[in-house]
Amino acid sequence: QHLSLSLNSTTTSFPTTHDKIEKPEDTPYFINNEFVASTTSEFIDLHDPATNNLVTRVPQNTDAELQAAVAAAAAAFKTWRSTSVLFRQQIMFKFVALIRENWDRLAASITLEQGKTFADARGDVLRGLQVAEAACGAPELLKGEVLEVAKDMETRTYREPLGVVAAICPFNFPAMIPLWCIPVATITGNTLILKPSERDPGAAMILAELAQKAGFPAGVVNIVHGAHRTVNFLLDEPAIKAISFVGSNKAGEYIFARGSANGKRVQANLGAKNHAAVLPDCNKNQFLNAVVGAAFGAAGQRCMALSTLVLVGETKEWLPELAERAKALQVNGGFEEGADLGPVISPHSKARIESLIASAETEGAKILLDGRGFKPAKYPNGNWIAPTIITDVTPEMQCYKEEIFGPVLVCLTVDTLDEAIDLINANEYGNGVAIFTRSGPTAETFRRRIDAGQVGINVPIPVPLPMFSFTGNKKSIAGGGASTFYGKPGVNFYTQLKTVTALWSSADAISKKADVAMPTHN
Ligand code: NAD
């Protein structure tokens, strides 16, 4: 049964199987707290990645519909901006509670549309929920500063919202990434137009319903759909003051350039190639489990997936054991009991990943574990690739240079920690990195010298919790990393400072002559 999106409905039934949906419903868009069917004739078919059955059709919103969303958000901003942060905090508390209540429903939508396992989809929701929870602390984060700068004179700052802001989201975290944006953008007093990935907007639609139920006034949270046309509209619309983007370099570099050229603030988190350096003194068992989980979990479709292993010294001898553990993972439909990883998002993505594996073979690497051609018996039509390990990789190979974004681990070998650091620093991406060692000084040297934004010490996927910020580096973030998501920098991104200087002098001015020199503040 397809999930019901009716606002008045109290039903919480949702699909927990990959069975064919008899009558797939089109995905509506969400404006002024209402779900509306698009009048477009252009739809994007969305297929369950485990079966390639049609789940829904996602509209390419018409220009008139996109303009209506901007008008709704602009109208709502007039009153929303002057609500108190404590008022907004109360709504956020309710939003948080509703996400918890609808946790499984959100996760089921993710498994159906995106393909990741149900347990992993619950984690996707949790990581977003934590951002909403942290956003409840906004009263503290929005405090300004004040200083008496001269006799009878003080300067103080206020953090004010920007206005209408927009978010453009990727397919791989259908709940978490919208939740990097909705809570922080709105609690700071902005109104939002969010475009989920056209490949899996279901979780964002449920979040819209929960936002309405939590008490967000009409027009504060709006969801529109589509691909490039919608993105271009958001980038060019003058009423939109800021763009939050998470996705690939191809789209993100373009979005950053065009949005910035149009005078908007843009934060853009991009692609990755995350390395792990493995030292012989590490806890071998912990390392093996950590890397297998972080390389193949979510079928490698995480921006923080640990996709590249740098084996230092004799640790290369551990490869057969690593392959054994990877081989033991169960690849299956995400709703199936015991599934460790699901399919990749589309037949196109599967073909791209397979061609990168083939290129490695052609370029002289070895396929230690080959996941091509695997099919779970129950789902012969899905986009399957089982865990794949490529060894003898060198930095010139295509499989090393490109983000694979699939269940593929590429392995390189070096003799020393210094070589490992040089190799990793020469890579153009700098999202996450990990080191496995029991030595404090070794970890400290690595931490100091490594050029990556998020470092794990015996932690394979060091995604910062929302009291910190998501701090990618190098090509993994646009604009030199000046604007990062969530945490204090997230609040800074969605607000601008107003700085007020006031003179309240009790003594009457006695001089009859204007002072034309710069004040000295003595
Ligand atoms: P994507 O770039 O294909 O799509 C992201 C969004 O951009 C979608 O909403 C899509 O409609 C839009 N888009 C795509 N191509 C466009 C174009 N040419 N012009 C305008 N808009 C376009 O990314 P994806 O495949 O959905 O997501 C996977 C990518 O996202 C990976 O590269 C991954 O590393 C990255 N990612 C990064 C982070 C991070 O925080 N650094 C987090 C998650 C995902």
Automatic annotation (TrEMBL):
Domain of life: Eukaryota
Entry EC number(s): 1.2.1.27
CDD domains: ALDH_F6_MMSDH
Oxidoreductase recorded as keyword: yes
InterPro entries: Ald_DH/histidinol_DH, Ald_DH_C, Ald_DH_CS_CYS, Ald_DH_N, Aldehyde_DH_dom, MeMal-semiAld_DH
PROSITE patterns to which the protein is assigned, alphabetical: ALDEHYDE_DEHYDR_CYS
Family that this chain belongs to: Belongs to the aldehyde dehydrogenase family.
Protein name (Swiss-Prot/TrEMBL): methylmalonate-semialdehyde dehydrogenase (CoA acylating)
Organism: Podospora appendiculata
